[in-house]
Design brief:
The chain is mainly alpha-helical. Helix content is about 70%, strand content about 0%. It is built from ten helices and no strands. The chain is elongated, with a radius of gyration of 24 Å.
């Protein structure tokens, strides 16, 4: 017969597992999902992958977030707001339009360097190109484009701003495409400091922006 002293006893120093509140569990899910999306890309990650890493049943994720698209949006939105906020704050410190362009580009690359996972989530190339999730991502890209367009307009003499919508839009798209492509190269190679990549982009695009903003002799004839 087993005596009382022979029976298994709970470890007196063990800490009982605490049941997480919904808010704490959602925060845990978002943290894991953010890491997964950044590391593997939206297309490769499944709700089952996230549930297994969190240690919950998959239906719980659907109950909290609805589907993978909405879970991604919940991870992407803070990244987008952080990037927009960083660039906007830098631009606001500028005293001239040209300085606004320079400070905005530097802030963009500082953000990429500081929070690489956030940038990878926001600029994930595996995200669907149509539908609700694409529209959500487009909001942040459009806000960045709007800041570039605003800086481009500010560089122009007042009399050239009217009727230049297509040029302003095309210029903004080119600058954003160059910034994104260079950021991907920098993340892939790490061949130079982030600030050097920013300065390289500035040195490449700034002369063209300034040249386009300056009225040439005889241009109004």
């Amino acid at each position: 017969m087993t005596s009382a002293d022979d029976r298994p006893r709970a470890d007196a120093g063990a800490i009982p597992r605490r049941r997480l509140s919904r808010a704490d569990r959602e925060e845990q899910v978002l943290r894991v999902a953010h890491e997964q999306f950044a590391r593997r890309g939206f297309a490769a990650v499944t709700m089952e992958d996230i549930a297994l890493e969190v240690g919950v049943k998959k239906p719980l994720l659907y109950a909290y977030f609805g589907n993978k698209d909405r879970l991604y949006e919940a991870c992407m939105a803070p990244a987008g707001e952080a990037l927009i906020g960083a660039v906007a704050a830098a631009v606001e410190r500028a005293s001239t339009p040209a300085e606004a362009v320079r400070l905005g580009v530097i802030a963009f690359y500082d953000f990429v360097d500081r929070d690489r996972d956030a940038w990878r989530v926001l600029f994930d190339e595996t995200v669907p190109q149509s539908g609700e999730i694409a529209a959500a991502v487009a909001v942040y890209r459009e806000r960045l484009l709007a800041m570039v367009a605003q800086a481009t307009v500010a560089l122009m003499p007042p009399h050239r701003r009217t009727g230049s919508g297509a040029v302003i839009e095309a210029t903004s798209v080119m600058v954003m495409a160059a910034a994104e492509a260079l950021a991907r190269w920098w993340l892939r190679t790490g061949a130079m400091p982030a600030r050097d990549a920013a300065n390289l982009l500035i040195a490449t695009v700034e002369p063209g922006l300034l040249a386009g903003a300056v009225e040439k002799d005889g241009s109004r004839r």
